[in-house]
Amino acid sequence: MKPLPLTVRLAAGLAVTAVEQARKLPGQLAGLPVTVVSEALQLSMRLQQRVTELAIKGDDALSVLRPVEQEPEWATFDEDEGGAAPAVGADLDADDPWSVEEQALAAEPPAVLPNYDELSLAQLRARLRTLSAEDLEELLAHERTHAARPEFTGMLTRRIANLENQ
Q1: 12, 60, 65, 125: which has the fewest Cβ within 10 Å?
Q2: Residues with Cβ within 8 Å of residue 132, at least 6 apart in sequence
Q3: CB–CB of 159/139 below 8 Å?
Q4: Can you say how many angstroms the Cα of residue 81 is from the centroid of all Cα atoms in its chain?
Q5: d(CA 108, CA 89)
């Protein structure tokens, strides 16, 4: 027996598929609004992601033309709003002969990283793996007596704990 032409076979396949889909339609109607809404949300999320990607690429391209400000004009800090910040070691007793010595020692940069006070958080993170636990303790003590920045003290404390666990 000779097979039927391809177009006839395709037409029959389409007809069977249409009948099957028509039988499934009543069950699918209940979930149709949910499907439409989820598809619309997915589409909007993809659109937002694409817009964000384009904005980031544009920022990268334009950053060459316009350098980033170190301290934007609109930024306000507690130190700017009034009164002088307390000096390092201001809580030390003036009658104590060691307090002057402690203040002098606190003003010195740590020997481990002489430029520690100028490092950003990312720059410090890059150097952490090369430092011993004693070096990290020295940096942590220096940080606590000077700027006491929570991000820096937290990172140093976690690194010391990781070294102790190893």
Answers
A1: 65
A2: 163
A3: no
A4: 28
A5: 13
